[in-house]
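dude i think i finally got it to work??
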Amino acid sequence: EKYLHLCQLVEDDRTDLLNNIVDDYCSLEEDTICSLRTSPINSNCKDRTSIDDFEILKPISRGAFGRVFLARKRATGDLFAIK
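look at this
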């Protein structure tokens, strides 16, 4: 139970972070992107997502800790930022 609670906290933080990244991206790109939001990440920690589940669209930024890419999840079409 504690494990599932911690998983949910991590997922909530990740969703908030991804929404902030999409919002920042909206200020730089066309208005159509602004209506997109990341969907909540599945809270079941047993389901693993791999990079093969995504289509990498383009780089968003790069920095000292790596690059961030805009990606579309193949199954749902949702947009994500991937580091």
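The chain has a mean pLDDT of 77.
im so relieved honestly
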